[in-house]
Amino acid sequence: MTMNTPKANRVHIGFFGRCNSGKSTLINMLADQPVSLVADVAGTTTDPVSKAMEILPLGPVMITDTAGIDDTSQLGQLRIAKTHELIKKINLAVYVLRSDEAFTEDDKKWIEELKLQELPVAVFINEIGAGESLESESIHKGKESTLSRSAELYVSQHPELNTLATVIGSGNFTSSTNRLELLDLLGGLTPLDAEEDQSLLSGLVNPGDTIVLVCPIDSAAPKGRLILPQVQAIREILDYKGLALVTQTEEIPALLLSLKNPPKLVITDSQAFEEVNALVPDTIPLTSFSILMARFKGKLKDLVLGVNAIKNLKPGSKVLISEGCTHRRQCDDIGTVKIPMWLKQNGYTDLDMTWTSGGAFPEHVEDYDFIIHCGACMLTRREVLRRIDVAVVQGVPIVNYGILIAMLHGILERAVSPFKDELQ
Predict the structure, then answer these.
(1) pTM tops 0.85
(2) Which residues form the domain of 271?
């Protein structure tokens, strides 16, 4: 089901505008359900509110309501800061204006900020006070725009608007009269990164190929389910008409003996790299879910190059370990326990370590000597690329969990060999 598409793999659409511009009302109308709280009181929306839905032909999307960009309440600056944070993660921006209010410098500043992030920006005009007869007054312009006569007048009175964004629709957001029309217009937009063919196993699986997935069931494994990268890998193997064989580490020898032909690829949890490497013959390609995520979400070449800087670490070196999720820490947690342990076993002792999780990632990392990042299955590709760029621009080596673990266990060359052509 599309509603089960992981949040990180959806097209993220942010809705922006001033307080009481109609952002929440528009989202509720498009979603055809009360997603956001609506009231005449300015500043009703505080923290960003998200809703997963399907908008064709975009497919699975995540739409997010934000606080008003002119929130002057006691917590207004904190709310606006959260809105700024959202800009770094979305693929498409919708800016909402009211037909009875002028286009302001605040509006201009925010649309310019969205454009600076290379985001496509679509403007919807809220026809305040428009009645059910709006549709009969609309001027239809095919897929590109559907504006009422009063909205056309609004645009003509504010010519700078069209130089900043695309005004694609207008309507009475309290009415569902032109809901499908506005959904169609929104679905026809091209989000940032849409041109990239993103796939976890792209180029690695052909019809009939056997892929072995090693999924250890230990204290870190979620009860009753697999982790997201494992599920994604299984689904993609099925999409490519391949054969997915799922096993635990200790069952690998029996599984390999049962096969008439060796598997095309073995993919393991990075934490089991050492054991799996010993059990899988060198003639069979081996990698990890985390390295696949590095390839899928980020820049694999930069992350592989980044691991070489580990030799420069010495006692007192500052290391940032960052995770994209906020799971409850286990006694053998990979980020806070296992990676520090493996670093110590390889002679990297007395390091000054800092941890972040979820949406937290510092904008200024120049004081760090090394950054270790998780596979980022819970983050959008745009956010992962941004974090890598933050590190690279500020001259700080950054590496992915799987790449680091492979290097610390002496099997990095084998673990990245399936992608050798991409690393040239």
Answers:
(1) no
(2) 210-292
